[in-house]
Prior knowledge:
- The protein is of the alpha/beta class.
- It has helices spanning 22-29, 37-51, 57-75, 94-103, 123-137, 151-165, 196-211, 235-246, 263-266, 268-280, 294-306, and strands spanning 4-12, 79-87, 108-113, 140-143, 177-183, 216-221, 250-254, 283-286.
- It has 2 domains: 4-147 and 292-306, Rossmann fold (3-Layer(aba) Sandwich), CATH 3.40.50; 151-286, Rossmann fold, CATH 3.40.50.1400.
- It is built from 11 helices and 8 strands.
- Helix 5 links the parallel strand 3 and strand 4 (140-143).
- It is globular and about 65 Å long.
Amino acid sequence: MSKRKIGVLVMSYGTPESMEQIEAYYTHIRRGSPPSPEQLKALTDRYGKIVGGFFPLRENTNRQVEELERTLNREHPELEFKCYQGLKHASPFIEDGVKQMAADGIKEAVGVVLAPHYSVMSVGGYIKRAEETAEPLGLSIRFVKSYHLHPLLIQALSERVTAALQRFEGVSPDKVRVIFSAHSLPEKILEMRDPYPEQLLASSKAVAEQTGVTSWQFAWQSAGQTAMPWLGPDILDVLETIHREEHVENVLLCPIGFVSDHLEVLYDVDIECQALAARLGMHLERTASLNTDPLYMKTLSDVVADQLGQA
Length: 311
């Protein structure tokens, strides 16, 4: 008897595969409007500083998708899972992933985003694009909307916080300010009663409780350069403020809204935040990204299977 075959659409923001693809990627983010030469140079320079001739960012996502497929098939041997990528701003786009599933004869699928926290502007947009493509193809697809309090996710993040605190030699953990961060979004989501900020705070609180961290706060990072206001305070402003007003000398940054190493972690945190911390005389560390951590892979496997009534 053949196994029930399930397609899994693994969605994420996407990133270029090489320096040569940056312009096309940036143009897609800007809804078809090419960046000015100055804007393109600024973005290319940022990538250049983190990749050093090798472009690892896309590989992170590829490995996550491959490892999730292995985990699902290992955890649920009675089913047959096949994972497909669907990216927001790069190929294969979300629509490509859905079409490939249909072309492969998949009739039943689950969509999950490599982001634990739901916002109508992020995860909601991914789901809408997938649904609109799947419906005319006769593909039945259910979606994981969020998994921000899954016990294994909180455990994985907590282990990283505990490990990173050890890097502050001779400093008591309660003398280290832990700052959880996530990608900012336009402020207008607050008027929409979007759950994104609340879910991020809930995850941060759960990690703080599990690790026994008492000195912590939340900050936003990587806001877009647009006319509309974005959620704040920004992490750079927070570092300045706690240094000036509270004389904080040791900071552990936990980018809780990100699940892999990419530009917002490797540049915005490891270069920009570190440069500011050095200028202020602060010792700043960050937690390691989840990437293909087995606990994160099991988290994703669980929430996908939940949609099928298999977990």
